[in-house]
C-alpha cells in the first residue's frame, strides 16, 4: 500500500504523494500482482527439482518458454500491438536478454542450492538494486512512503529466515547441552 499509494486511500487520509498527475494503471498493478504470484510458484518449483535439473537447463527452458509465449503475444497483439524497435531499442533488448538470462541462471542456482527462505531473503536485494539503478539511470527518486514500504517488504521477507535461524541455533544449543 505504501509503494502503490492507492489514491482513494491516500487522498481520504489527506496525504498527497506528489504523483497525482500520473495515476497508476490498475491493470498494470493487477498483472504485476499475478507476476509476483507466478514468480513465487516458479521459485518453489525450482527448489522442488533441486539436484534433478541443472540451473542452466532451468534457465534455458524458462527463456525458451518465454520466447514462445512472447511470440504468441505479439501475434495476437496482447497487451498492445507490436512496434518494430529502433537500433537503440534493439541494443536495449539484447541487454535485457543477456542480463535476464544471467539473472535467471544465478537465481536458479541459488534457489536450488540454498534453503528457500535464505534464497528469498537474498533475492530482496533486488529492491535495493532496482532503486539504485532507477535513480542512477532514470532519475527516479523513491519517496518516504516508497522507502518505508520497501523496508517493510524486506523485513517481512527476512523475518521468517531470521526466525528459522534463531530456532535452529536454539535447537543446536539444546542438543549440545
How does this structure look, described?
The protein has seven helices and no strands. The chain is mainly α. It has one domain. It has helices spanning 7-12, 26-48, 55-75, 87-113, 116-123, 125-138, 144-176.
> Using only CA atoms, what is the Rg?
20 Å
Mean pLDDT: 84
Shape: globular
Approximately how much beta-strand content do the residues carry?
Answer: under 5%
Q: How many DSSP H or I helices?
A: 7
The H/E string reads HHHHHHH
Structural class, by secondary structure, is: mainly alpha
How many beta-strand elements?
A: 0
Characterize the main sheet.
Answer: none
Offer a quick outline of the entry.
This protein is mainly alpha-helical. It has helices at residues 7-12, 26-48, 55-75, 87-113, 116-123, 125-138, 144-176.
Topology:
Blueprint (H helix, E strand, L loop, with lengths): L6 H6 L13 H23 L6 H21 L11 H27 L2 H8 L1 H14 L5 H33 L1
Helix pairs in contact: 2-4, 3-4, 4-5, 5-7
Key terms for this structure?
single chain, 177 residues, mainly alpha, 7 helices, 75% helix
Amino acid at each position: 500500500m505504501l509503494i502503490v499509494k492507492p489514491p482513494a486511500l491516500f487522498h481520504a487520509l489527506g496525504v498527497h504523494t506528489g504523483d497525482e498527475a500520473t495515476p497508476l494503471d490498475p491493470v498494470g498493478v493487477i498483472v504485476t500482482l499475478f507476476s509476483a504470484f507466478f514468480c513465487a510458484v516458479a521459485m518453489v518449483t525450482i527448489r522442488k527439482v533441486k539436484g534433478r535439473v541443472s540451473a542452466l537447463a532451468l534457465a534455458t527452458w524458462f527463456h525458451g518458454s518465454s520466447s514462445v509465449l512472447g511470440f504468441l503475444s505479439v501475434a495476437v497483439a496482447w497487451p498492445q500491438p507490436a512496434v518494430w524497435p529502433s537500433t537503440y531499442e534493439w541494443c536495449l533488448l539484447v541487454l535485457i536478454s543477456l542480463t535476464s538470462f544471467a539473472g535467471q541462471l544465478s537465481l536458479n542456482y541459488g534457489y536450488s542450492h540454498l534453503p528457500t527462505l535464505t534464497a528469498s531473503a537474498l533475492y530482496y536485494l533486488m529492491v535495493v538494486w532496482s532503486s539504485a539503478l532507477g535513480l542512477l539511470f532514470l532519475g527516479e527518486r523513491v519517496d518516504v512512503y516508497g522507502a518505508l514500504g520497501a523496508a517493510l517488504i524486506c523485513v517481512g521477507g527476512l523475518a521468517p529466515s531470521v526466525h528459522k535461524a534463531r530456532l535452529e541455533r536454539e535447537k543446536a544449543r539444546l542438543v549440545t547441552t
